Amino acid sequence: MPVARRDRLEVLIQRAAIEKRVRAVARRITTDFKGQQLHLVGVLKGACIFLADLVREIKLDTSIDFIAVSAYGPGHEPTGQVRMQKDLDSSIAGMNVLLVEDILDTGLTLSYLLRILRQRQPKCLRVAALLDKPSRRLKEVKADYVGFTIPNEFVVGYGLDYAERYRHLKDICILRLSPSEGPAASATSR
Ligand code: IMP
């Protein structure tokens, strides 16, 4: 696998374990929404691979849309300011909506998204997050479906990036940056 400069990657969750867990989460969602339609809203860009795998395992009448937000400023920590970069293509009023996130970290992004999506009056609004880092939470938010709870490490792969790199990795890996690099979150572009 191509690794930039002297960054080190340590596998945290292997591809096979991700596949198994995504199938299990999809089964739960299928059961919970049995007989109903489900509209998946993926949060770009990090959730695109999770959403692509999840939607193919959900045995329901589904549709998909995407939304993009930015949560990080030029500094190394979240600014607390979340901004919309790309809105949904269509209305979600009256629909069963499943918001699909890559990772729940401080919770700032999810809390913003839940607030604006609730205003659009979906019939139901639930959240599926591939990863959850509860120790980093600044806002009290929870996902209804969580793939894996992980420790406070910066992870890449399976859609998650560092400065747009490493999204293509099939495993989820802890990224240990070479000493010349700063902390990770500032360069994350979702
Ligand atoms: P929040 O802090 O919960 O608002 O998360 C904002 C976004 O930061 C997530 O959706 C990810 O795109 C990104 N992020 C947070 N932690 C990580 C990480 O460990 N690796 C890659 N991206 C991350």
SSE order and pairing:
Layout: E1 8-13, H1 15-32, E2 37-44, H2 48-57, E3 61-72, E4 78-86, E5 96-104, H3 108-118, E6 124-132, E7 145-149, E8 155-156, E9 172-176
Helix pairs in contact: 1-2
Bound molecules: inosinic acid (IMP).
Residues 46, 71, 78, 101-110, 154-156, 160, 188, 190 line the site of inosinic acid.
In short:
By secondary structure, this protein is α/β, with parallel strands linked by helices. It contains 3 helices and 9 strands, in the order E-H-E-H-E-E-E-H-E-E-E-E.
Under the CATH scheme, the architecture is 3-Layer(aba) Sandwich
Q: Helix tally?
A: 3
Spatial strand sequence of the major β-sheet: 4-3-2-5-6-7
Distance between the termini: 21 Å
**In what range is the share of β-strand residues?**
25-35%
Q: Any low-confidence stretches, pLDDT <50, length ≥5?
A: 183-187
Class per helix and strand makeup: alpha/beta
Number of strands: 9
What is the CA-based Rg, rounded? 16 Å
Work out the helicity level.
Answer: 10-25%
**CATH topology-level fold name:** Rossmann fold
> Averaged pLDDT, please?
91
Element pattern in H and E: EHEHEEEHEEEE
Number of domains: 1
Q: Rough shape? A: globular
Biggest β-sheet strands, sense, barrel: 6 strands, mixed
Class in CATH?
Alpha Beta
Kindly describe this structure.
There is one protein chain. This protein is α/β, with parallel strands linked by helices. The protein has a single domain, classed as Rossmann fold (3-Layer(aba) Sandwich), CATH 3.40.50.2020. The strands form two sheets. Strands 4-3-2-5-6-7 form a six-stranded mixed beta sheet, with helices on both faces. It has a three-stranded antiparallel beta sheet with strand order 1-9-8. Helix 1 crosses helix 2. It is globular. The two termini are about 20 Å apart. About 5% of the residues have low confidence. The site of inosinic acid (IMP) has 19 residues, from strand 5, helix 3 and strand 8.
